[in-house]
Structure prediction request, 269 residues.
Amino acid sequence: MALQSSGAISLANIQTEFGGTNPISLSEYYSKGNAPASGEIQLAADFYGTSDSVDLDFTLQGGTTSRGAGTHSSVSIGTANTNRMVVISANSLNSAVPSGITIGGNAMSVVNSTSGVYIAFLKVPTGTTADIVITGGGTFTQQIYTLNTVNSGTSNSQINYSTAAVGSASSGSFTFSTTVSDDGVFIWGGFIVPGANPGASFSNTITTDNSNGATTVNNVGGSTSGATRQGYSVCTSNDTKFAKYTWSRTNTKPANYPRGAAFAFFKAS
Prediction:
């Protein structure tokens, strides 16, 4: 049952909903309800109307759109919800990542490779549209998702980036393994671009051992300019699963190829 939305709220009320140990400590409730991961917790502001159990309700908000630095007004973010998390997944052929992103005037957390791919997220409980302001960086193809979660961030995440020579290898991959739940979702993407002395064309895939498979929302590949892809997978089990980004090229010419990936796993509870 969700906590009350008005009136006095106590630590005991919060412990009943979210669990915990005695003596009760506020630090137990970081990232619970609408509480931050660190810093000051406010009982009413951070816990009114929150619950330890919600439906994921993972939704794509429209299709992919190209966005770069600047103000993007009245972007659709779906139905208002106390537990709503807005996620922006973005990929490109090696564009520099933004130095900051805000939504509705509030800073988003960002999981990003050095270039080419990032995942930004923030709980936004009110409004059906929001202004998104991107500072710095290049132009990326973005997909906006919304999901419900009692948490204030990812359950786990990972970034990869390398410019090391790949020698004679014609393919390679980055893999993210984590404990998943049947109310969670993987969101990830990656890129590879020519470096010095490329002499190849490129392709890429995203895969997972989750039974729902991987759904691609944007893919650029099969060209000499590089390859990039992003997508998601809604989980259906409670165990350890992986999400993988794999790149390949047409020949085995040694070279330094910038390549990277960003992974995030969100769960409702």
In short: Residues 156-267 form a domain with the Jelly Rolls fold (CATH 2.60.120).
